[in-house]
Structures are given as structure tokens and as C-alpha cells.
Amino acid sequence: MDQIHIRALEALQPFIHLANSNSATSPRFITNLITNATSSPNTYVFAELLETPAIQALRAPDTPDEYKGYLTLLEIFAWGTWQDYQATPSLPRLTAPQTLKLQLLSLLTLSTTLKPLTYASLMTALSITQPSDLETLVTKAIYSSLITARLSPATSPPSVNVTAVAPLRDVDPRALGGMVSVLTQWETRCRSVIGEIEAEIARIRSESARRREEEYGRNVVFEKALAGWGSEGGDGARRAAGWQGKESGGGPGGPGGVGLGGGNKREFSADDFDDDDDDGYWEHGVEGDGQGLGSRMDIDDGAGSLRLGLGARHPKRVLGKKS
């Protein structure tokens, strides 16, 4: 609870105690109690005093007319304004302290209901004729911690900028129905908004689950494809390695394989053949030839020659005959 409200309740307690005492039996005593409570400089709430049986006794039909207006006056101090006082007939005349108190309380209400809060509008609502008197009233309210405000007399139009209002006004029981209706409508809107939020949350969760499932499916397919590609790639690599081995060593075209072309030469030595064997070839070239070919010669198998290891040989070129 706000400190200003606590102080206001503490200031009202002596009057509540008097209203509940055994002496509070005559209408004159009760009306004097109301006058003193509304004139006290520190009392700003009055609902607790209004609820006492002694104050409510003024509603009795046998109450003299001169005292009946005090109950209405106390209700105006509790939740009404200066305009309500002026609009209600047969009310007691206010003293100067009561007038200042009601104007201060009215300023609290106007600060929350009147926009913009200009000098002109406040002076009309509070029956003030001079701007200086309004500024004095607002300054009093500020120093009493009733409002937090700043005067702006140089603006156009001059205005009072209120930023905070003390919770000191009571609620008119006649306004409870409207307040309940407004709160019910607000509750309905809140429930509707909450329902929409919950539906959106459910939709987001469902969409998130669907996306996770799709991503999981894509990952499974990708992993399977990656595993299959790795297996096929390994076999291909092994096949490629085997073919290269054949090319370089024992495979086709290698020393122990089948020659499929090209440029392979066999080196022969004339000493490998028996000179005594008349095979029809000269050792040192063709007869009558002035050039010797040496004791060794290369026999070119020729392109496209095929050596199968079956004793087949390519015919040798005739180098020379014995005479």
C-alpha cells in the first residue's frame, strides 16, 4: 500500500473510533464528526468512515432534513468532485478548509480523467478565477504528495503536466456495475488472445516436428547414398589399381604378357650363333660391302608384332650371304 494512503488511513482512525463510540447517537454529533473529518488537513480517504453504523444512521427517515445532507457531503468527499458538490442542492455550506480539501481531491480525479489538463479547463472545473490561484492549488497538491506534476504556464495553452497521482479516491458503489462490465470484456479479450497464442504455439511445434522429421529422412537417404558410393568407389579403385599393375609389370603389354604394339627390341649377339654352322649369313656384313655392322645388332620386331611364347618368330632381315 502507498505511504500516502497509509498516512491518510491513520489520520482517519480517530474519527472512526468516535463514530463507533457509545456517544455517537445524536444526528448533531455525527454531523459535527463529518465536518471535523473533512476539514482535517491530513484526511483524504473516507470510505471506512462512511461504512460505520453511526454515519449510515443518517439515512433513517426520521433524521431531520438539516442533517440529511451531511451524508451526501461525505460521499462527495469520498469519490465526488467540486462539480458534484455544486450540482447537488441542499448541501451544507463548506468552510475554507473543506473547500481547499474538496478542490485538492477534485484535482486528483481531474488529473486522471481530463485530457489535456489545461489551465482553462481546471479553472472552470474548480471554480477558480485567477491562474495564480490555480498554480497555488497545484503547488499545494505537489508538496502534499498528492500528485507529481509540473506547471507549464508559458506553453500555448498553459497546462499542468501530471505524471503520477496518489491512490486516494474511493470508488463510487454505483460505478461498480460498469467496472465489472469493463473487466469482464477485458477478461474475454484476454482469453481470446491467450487462445490464439496457444494455437500459434501448437502450430509452431507441429511445424517444427515436421521439419525435424523431413530433415531426418533426408539425412538417412544421404547416408545411404554416401555408403553405396563409398563401396562402389572402393571396387573401382581396386580394379583401376590392378589394371595399372598389369600395364607396368605382369599384365598385358608387360614383360611377361602379350605385347600389343610397339617399339620393343631384342638384342642379339653374333657370338650367340655358331660360326661353323653354315646358316647362310655373313658375320661382318654383305659380301662386297665395305662397311662392317659390328658384332652385335638389334632386331626390331616391328609395330604390331605379337610374341606369344609359342616358338613363332618374326622373319629376320637378311644382312648378308656367304659366297
From TrEMBL:
InterPro entries: COPS7/eIF3m, PCI_dom
Chain ranges of the PCI domain: 1-165
Ranges for region Disordered: 232-323
Biased composition range(s): Gly residues: 247-263
Keyword ATP-binding: no
Cellular component GO terms held in the UniProt record: COP9 signalosome
Family assignment from sequence similarity: Belongs to the CSN7/EIF3M family. CSN7 subfamily.
PANTHER family: COP9 SIGNALOSOME COMPLEX SUBUNIT 7 (PTHR15350:SF5), COP9 SIGNALOSOME COMPLEX SUBUNIT 7/DENDRITIC CELL PROTEIN GA17 (PTHR15350)
Protein name: PCI domain-containing protein
Organism, as annotated: Aspergillus ellipticus CBS 707.79
